[in-house]
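Q: For a teaching session next week I want to show students how multiple molecules come together into a single three-dimensional assembly. I've collected the sequence lines for a complex. Could you give me the predicted C-alpha cells for the whole thing so I can convert them for display?
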Amino acid sequence: MIRSVEEHQQAVLGLLRYSSSYPADSRTDLDGGGTELPLAAARGRVLAVDLQAPVSLPPFDNSQMDGYAVHVDDLGPAGGTSGRTLRVGAPIPAGIEPPDLVQGSAAPIMTGAMIPGNTGAIVPIERVTPAQFYSAADYEADAELTVDLPDTVEPGAYIRRAGSDIPAGATALAAGTLLGPAQLGLLAACGIAAVPVRRQFTVLLLTTGDEVQEPGSTPQPGKIFDANTTLLETALLDAGAAVIRHRLMDDNPTLLREALAAVADSGIHLILTTGGISQGAYEVVKQALANSSVEFLSVAMQPGGPQALGTIGGVPFLGFPGNPVSALVSFEMFLRPALTAVAGVPHPRVVLTAALEEEVSSPEAKHQVRRGWYTPRAAAGEPVGTVRLVGGPGSHLIHALAESNVLVHLPTGTGSLAAGDLVSVWLVDGMHGAPSFGIPAAHPLAVAGPGNP
Amino acid sequence: MIRSVEEHQQAVLGLLRYSSSYPADSRTDLDGGGTELPLAAARGRVLAVDLQAPVSLPPFDNSQMDGYAVHVDDLGPAGGTSGRTLRVGAPIPAGIEPPDLVQGSAAPIMTGAMIPGNTGAIVPIERVTPAQFYSAADYEADAELTVDLPDTVEPGAYIRRAGSDIPAGATALAAGTLLGPAQLGLLAACGIAAVPVRRQFTVLLLTTGDEVQEPGSTPQPGKIFDANTTLLETALLDAGAAVIRHRLMDDNPTLLREALAAVADSGIHLILTTGGISQGAYEVVKQALANSSVEFLSVAMQPGGPQALGTIGGVPFLGFPGNPVSALVSFEMFLRPALTAVAGVPHPRVVLTAALEEEVSSPEAKHQVRRGWYTPRAAAGEPVGTVRLVGGPGSHLIHALAESNVLVHLPTGTGSLAAGDLVSVWLVDGMHGAPSFGIPAAHPLAVAGPGNP
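A: Of course. Below is the structure for the complete assembly, covering every listed component.
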C-alpha cells in the first residue's frame, strides 16, 4: 500500500492524538495540568491555562512624556484657554503616588509617572517656556517658579490611560501560547513571577542497525557512525520536546522487541526508531514488530518512503527510515507538524516561494523533498528570492544537508521544472550552515541582504 | 545630536568589536579558543574552529538499494551482456566487510552495505527475477539458487561512492558555523563526539528605576513590575548569549555607579542597562555616568530614540530606554544584529515584504518600528502576504507586542502609506502569540496556511 504524504501526515497526527491507552499522567499534563516554572525557565514552553491579567496595563494613568501636568480647569473646552502662565509645583518622578494638582499650578512630571488627580493634560517639556526643567538650585533660589504654556493644549494629551494595553481580568495569554520573550515580558509586567506550562512531549529515541557505531569509537570496516540519534535528538529539542536517548540496538529482533516492551510503560509520549523498516532481508524493526499493531507502509515521498506507525503497549510508535536525510525529512514532514498540532510547540515552518536557479526533475509519482540554499530577492521589485539545490536527491548526503537552509518541495506530479519556475521552500531553523542568510533589510551590517527598503 | 538608525547600528557593532581593553580571556574565547562540548550540548552554539572531516562520507562504497551486487565482468561495456542468469552468493548485510565477488555469481546486498570487490553495479531487487530475496529456508533447501538479471544494467548503478558527500580531509564545517541539528548530525556521521565551541557572549543585564518592582511582589502605588529584565534576558538567551541578571537598581546615581564599577572586571562582554537615559529630571544612568566615556544620544527611531553607548572600565556598555517595547526594539535593531556579526549567533531575522491591511502614517524624520501580525499570502498567485498593525506606536504596549509576530518597518521619510502599500517586516521568533502562523503549505494540518503548492 502506498500512502500519500497528506494521508500519512493525518495518520501521524491521529497517532499523537491517540488517547485510549495513553499514560493517564501524560494526557493530563498535555491537556493543561502542567508544572509551574519561573519565567525565564519557561522560555520555549507552552502555556497550560488561560491567564488573566491580575492588574491593568498600564496599572494607572501615567505620563507618556517628560513635561508638565496641567490642571483640567486651567484648560479651556478645546484647550483654547491655554497659553497662560502657571506656578510650578513639586516635581513628580516615576514611582510615587503624587498629591492632586491645585488649579493655577503645573507639576513637572516624568515619563511613566502617575498622573496626579485633576490633571487635564500633559504638556511636553519642549513645548513650554522655559523648555527645560528647573534645577534643584532653582527651587532653592526662587520660591515662585513659573512656566508658560503653549497657545493650544489638547485635553487628555500624552496621558497613557490605565488598562489601555490590557484591562485587569482580560485574558493576557491563551492556553497553548508558546512562551517567547514578549509573552514572558508581558507576564512579568503583570507581576506574575511563575507560569504554569504544559509538560514537554517526551520522545524515546532509538537507532537500530548492525552497521551503526557510536561517534567517538574507532571506525570499523563496513560500519558507519550513528548520525540519526544526534540529528533527531537536537531537532526534537529545537522543537520543544524532551528526549530520552536509548542505546544503539543491533539487528537482533528478539532483543529489540524486549527493549521496546521495557520502555513502553515509562510515561513517554512517543517511541521513535530509525532504520530497519524497509524491504531488505534484515529489517530489525519490522521483524521485531511483525505480529504487532504496528503498520509498515510506503509513503509516496522521496526520501523517507518507508514508514512505520502504530502503538507498542499503548504508547504511540513511529519508525523512520535509517538514512539521516530520510530521517530528518520524515521528522519535518510528519512529526514536527503533528507536535505543533498536539503540543503547541514548535511553531510551523515559514513557507516561502522561490524561483529555481536551475532546472530540476523529480519522480512524478512522489513528493520529492530536496535540500537547497535560499537567497532572498536582490531588489524590492522582485517578488521572490531564488533557491539553488544543494547536493543530489540522495538520502545519505548529510554534508549537503548541513550546507542548506531550506527544504525544497517538488510535490507529486511535478516532474520537470525549468530555471525560474517557482517552488515552495520551508525555512528550516538550525539548518542554516552559514551566517549570511536573511540579514535584515535596511541594515548596514548586511553581507548579503535582500536590499529592500 | 541625532543619529540615524544606520549610524547607531554601526556604533554598536564597533563597540562589540572593541578590543583594546577587552578582557583577554573573553577575546581568546571569541576568537576561537572555546570549550569542547558533547554534540547535543553544543546545540545553538557556534563552532570555534574549522573542522576537517576525519573520514570520508560515505566512508566506503555502499549500496543505495536492496538488490544484487553483480560482478564487473558479468556486465558488458554498456550493460548489454546482462539478462543472464547468475548463481546467488552469500547475502551481504550492512555492517560487514564482504568477500570479493566471484564472476558468474551475484550477492544479495542490503541498502548501506559495503560493496564487495569486483562489483560492476547494483541491481535493485524489484528488477530481478525472482523479485524478492531468498529466505533462509530456501538457502537450506537448494544449494544452487539463481537470479535472472534484467536486459540492461547500467554500469556503476546504485553505488554510493566513498567520499561523494564529503572526502576525508575536506572542511566539514567552517569556524563560525551555528550548530543546529544538521551540522551536529554531520559531525556525528564523521565520528566526532565532542565539538569545540566559542564561548557564549555574556551580558550583564541591569534594570533601573525607582518605579520598578519585582514581579511576584505586592503592587505599590505608582510603581510598575519589571518587564525588561525578563524580556531582554529571554531575548538574549534566544539569541545564544549568556545572561547575568543584576538586581533592580533604584534612581540613586552613586549606588548605580558603584554597582557598575563592581561588575566591570568580571569577564563579561557587555553591560546592558534599561531606563534612566532620557531627558527627564531623574535619569539615573545618565547621572551615574555623567563624567565617563559613555555617550548619551538620540537615534531617529521610534520607539527607542534615547540610547547610551560607551565603555565602563573597558567593558562595552549599552543603555536602552526603559519602556519595554523600546527596549526590545533597541535589542532587535542594534544589539541582535551586532551579536550576529561578532559572535556568529543568532541568525539574522527573516525579512519579508508585506502589503499593509490598513493605512498608516509615521513621523517622516524617524524610522518607526511598529508591531504587526503577518498573514502569509492566501494563494500562490499573490506575490506577498499582508500585515495588520497590532496596537498603536506606544512604547508601553507590551500586550500588543505579545500578540504580534513581526516588526513592521516604516523607515525615515515614509510618512503616510495607504492600505495595500508594501512594507518590510521582520519575522520575530518567539514573538508569535498564536500557533496559526506560517503553517507549511501543501500541509493538511494547516489551519491558516498560505495554500501555495
